[in-house]
């Protein structure tokens, strides 16, 4: 349920209303917008009648929310959320590119790529230290050593870093990581999501291979309900009957999510296609559809990459793409 307050409502009366609601057992979600101030009620609102609330003179209107995700709902939070990552803003009118290799292999590799993508205009560095792989025989990442190398690259380049977590047991290792990524396979690892909800750190939540958008938002709700409001959603393609690409990028997910939620939405064209030549057109399509950013795989020697070389751009290819991305974002901002 959402309580819409009158403009210039008496603050003492607003505080009394909030106290009454808390006494009734509700948790409150407050949203201060430019046009309206809202109080969102979290809990079983079946016992509250709208007429009682509408009779209070600081209340303009009352609406019930049908979505099971309350904090992630745009109804509860009409204005776009903007996530701040070390001064780099994602969401609202801010568009950012995250770039780097699928897996961290050596200090030279991750540092060289970090400096390359920074020169091209990326504002965040990605790199996998823990890698969930379908085959138990595939390269699983360098784990703790990989995180150390990633942080070395952060110091060398000045870029905030994004990397994937796979277990709550690894949380102490991620203290200096700027954005914790929850991969597609862990989107419904609810115990992990609950622990991430206790942090005050941005979480990049990827959509599962076969999950609906509402299921993605319910996973985000786990993090938000824990108190961590720094959630970035990522559309990375879903599994369909099509075999021409690794996954199928659901481009319509971007505007649908923008209608459903206030959270920023970015796109991963690398995992969506699994094909290097498709990264550029899918990136530009994502911008046209209203994405708040991209996460792109870049490797200095894709042919010898230990993971996902076929979908990784070389630094010169990424540099060329960044010029097109910059022109595209400027164009759509001008419309």
Automatic annotation (TrEMBL):
Give this protein's Gene Ontology molecular function annotations. Answer: 3-deoxy-7-phosphoheptulonate synthase activity; aldehyde-lyase activity
Q: What is its EC number?
A: 2.5.1.54
Q: Which InterPro entries match?
A: Aldolase_TIM (IPR013785), Class-I_DAHP_synthase (IPR052899), DAHP1/KDSA (IPR006218), DAHP_snth_FXD (IPR041071), DAHP_syn_2 (IPR006268)
Highest taxon in the source lineage: Bacteria
- A Pfam match: DAHP_synth_1
BP terms from Gene Ontology: aromatic amino acid family biosynthetic process
| Leading EC class | transferase
Q: Which UniProt keywords apply?
A: Transferase
- What this protein is called in its record is 3-deoxy-7-phosphoheptulonate synthase
The beginning of the lineage is: Bacteria, Bacillati, Bacillota, Clostridia, Lachnospirales
């Amino acid at each position: 349920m959402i309580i819409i307050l009158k403009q210039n409502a008496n603050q003492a009366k607003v505080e009394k209303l909030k106290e009454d609601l808390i006494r009734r057992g509700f948790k409150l979600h407050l949203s201060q917008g430019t046009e309206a101030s809202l109080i969102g009620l979290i809990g079983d609102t079946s016992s509250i009648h709208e007429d009682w609330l509408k009779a209070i003179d600081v209340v303009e209107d009352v609406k019930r929310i049908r979505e099971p995700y309350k904090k992630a709902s745009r109804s509860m939070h009409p204005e776009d959320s903007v996530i701040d990552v070390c001064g780099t803003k994602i969401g609202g009118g801010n568009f950012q590119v995250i770039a780097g290799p699928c897996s961290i292999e050596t200090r030279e590799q991750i540092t060289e790529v970090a400096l390359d993508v920074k020169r091209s205009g990326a504002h965040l560095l990605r790199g996998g230290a823990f890698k969930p792989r379908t085959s138990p025989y595939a390269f699983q990442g360098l784990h703790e050593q990989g995180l150390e190398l990633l942080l070395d690259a952060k110091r060398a380049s000045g870029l905030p870093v994004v990397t994937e977590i796979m277990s709550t047991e690894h949380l102490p290792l991620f203290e200096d990581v700027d954005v914790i990524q929850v991969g597609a396979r862990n989107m419904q690892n609810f115990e992990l999501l609950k622990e991430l909800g206790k942090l005050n750190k941005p979480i990049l939540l990827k959509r599962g291979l076969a999950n609906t958008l509402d299921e993605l938002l319910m996973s985000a709700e786990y993090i938000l309900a824990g108190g961590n409001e720094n959630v970035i959603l990522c559309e990375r393609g879903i599994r369909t009957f099509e075999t021409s690409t690794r996954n199928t990028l659901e481009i319509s997910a971007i505007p649908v999510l923008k209608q459903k939620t206030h959270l920023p939405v970015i796109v991963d064209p690398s995992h969506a296609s699994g094909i290097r030549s498709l990264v550029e057109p899918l990136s530009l399509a994502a911008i046209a559809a209203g994405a708040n950013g991209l996460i792109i795989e870049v490797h200095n020697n894709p042919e010898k990459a230990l993971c996902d070389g076929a979908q990784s751009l070389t630094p010169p290819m990424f540099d060329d793409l960044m010029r097109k991305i910059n022109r595209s974002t400027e164009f759509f901002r001008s419309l």
